[in-house]
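tool=predict chain=A
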Amino acid sequence: MRQLLLLPVIVSAIVLASGRTASSEVKVAGRSDAVHLEVHEASLHDVLAALQERFNLRYRTVGALEVQMTGVFDGPLRRVVARLLSGHDYAMQVTADGVDVLVLASQGPSATVVAAVTPASAARPPLTAAELKHYESGHLR
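tool=predict ok
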């Protein structure tokens, strides 16, 4: 009798899981200095994995990155990643070899993130040490 009751639950779970997977989408284009990323109902983990596959991005995390995202992101790789990780505590190191990211924790409860299309300059993360040096010397505006 118990097995008969569990059958509808198992079937529902399979249908929901397959429906969720089919609707998520991540499209990556461009170069590391001019990334174009389109995301539709994909987990942050899937988005970072797609960027890792296309560019020299390495990321590690101490927890699951299952927050669902939808949006369009444009700009240099480091800025796109910073926008994706908005709401998370993370550390990023940008080197000539690529971008290394350590995602420490989410700053709030899990929720769906929806990003509006905004210019890359609209919400800038803190400058890197090299950018700060150039800015202080008057070369970066």
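The chain has four helices and seven strands. The mean pLDDT is 77.
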